[in-house]
Specification:
two-stranded antiparallel sheet; mainly alpha; Farnesyl Diphosphate Synthase
Length: 309
């Protein structure tokens, strides 16, 4: 069973949540957003992605015996933010891509200026979505939501995704190893780490489990990007882009991906070690979901090894 099938229930929760943003009463309901802008935002979000990041957020929440519902606003926020970065990545001033996941990119379909505004709107919606979780919660849940929001904002900003993108677009060959690491760690890895860490926070995990979740996401994110670099190596359109293959051989890149995967699995073992105590006093359903969610996180990490071969 592949990731899409194994994560089916969580992906369905995400898809329903994204659709709800545009429904009457939602954050992006038609009565509050220009029709054409809403259409373009839905187009950007419906690009056929696996919903990796929001699923990671929900699965990590479940792995620490939390109810995924309180984590859903952050899962949606992370997916909104991720898609904003994709829309802006495709702009002529950035990667200048006319295609995204087998169909016209937002800038190719709607225009360059419109794509800038779609990305801006998705980013703003991400921060609004992240605040929803704290609105009607009890005091302890609100405190967790504030902490999760801080982690989300940090990952989104100048020290995270935007900073990684800045270094990427301002870099010229030859690319030193530290620059490649910085871009991969922040442009790609920070949002994956954030997904896991905010999921653990929303699940009420203790500090040790939150730290383990963050390390799992960080190492998984780096492995994910290394494997993407390997898969892109035969694409002539990717020639010259900043890549781990700028500084190491494909064989060494595969070794690095394997090392990162092992480190992610080690962090997951630490996370799992916290789960038995967390299961005391929770319902049988939450305890069972915890085991299944941890298995999903393990399968996803091991999948990076299979993708790199």
């Amino acid at each position: 069973m592949d990731f899409v099938d194994q994560a089916g229930p969580l992906r369905e929760l995400v898809e329903d949540g994204l659709a709800g943003l545009f429904a009457p009463g939602g954050l992006l309901a038609a009565d509050s957003v220009p029709v054409e802008l809403g259409d373009a935002m839905r187009y950007a979000l419906a690009g056929g992605g696996k919903r990796l990041r929001p699923v990671l957020c929900l699965a990590t929440c479940q792995a620490v015996c939390g109810d995924p519902v309180p984590a859903l606003p952050f899962a949606l926020a992370i997916e909104l933010l991720h898609n904003y970065t994709l829309v802006h990545d495709d702009l002529p001033c950035m990667d200048d891509d006319a295609m995204r996941r087998g169909r016209p990119s937002v800038q190719a379909k709607f225009g360059e200026a419109q794509a800038v505004l779609v990305g801006d709107a998705l980013q703003a919606a991400a921060f609004r979505a992240a605040l929803v979780g704290a609105a009607d919660s009890g005091e302890s849940a609100r405190l967790r939501a504030v902490l999760a929001f801080d982690r989300f904002a940090e990952a989104a900003g100048a020290g995270g995704v935007v900073g990684g993108q800045w270094v990427d677009v301002t870099s010229v060959p030859p690319h030193p190893a530290e620059r490649v690491r910085h871009v991969h760690e922040h442009k790609t890895g920070d949002l994956i780490r954030c997904a896991c860490e905010t999921g653990a926070i929303c699940g009420g995990a203790p500090v040790a489990a939150r730290s383990a979740a963050a390390r799992y996401g960080e190492r998984l994110g780096f492995a994910f990007q290394i494997v993407d670099d390997l898969l892109d190596s035969s694409d002539p359109d990717k020639a010259g882009e900043l890549s781990v293959l700028s500084v190491v051989t494909p064989e060494r890149a595969r070794e690095l991906a394997a090392d990162c995967t092992r480190e992610a699995l080690s962090a997951l073992s630490e996370l799992r070690a916290c789960a038995p105590a967390a299961r005391d006093g929770v319902s049988a359903d939450l305890a069972s979901s915890s085991v299944a969610a941890a298995a999903l996180l393990e399968a996803l990490a091991r999948d990076q090894l299979a993708r790199s071969r």
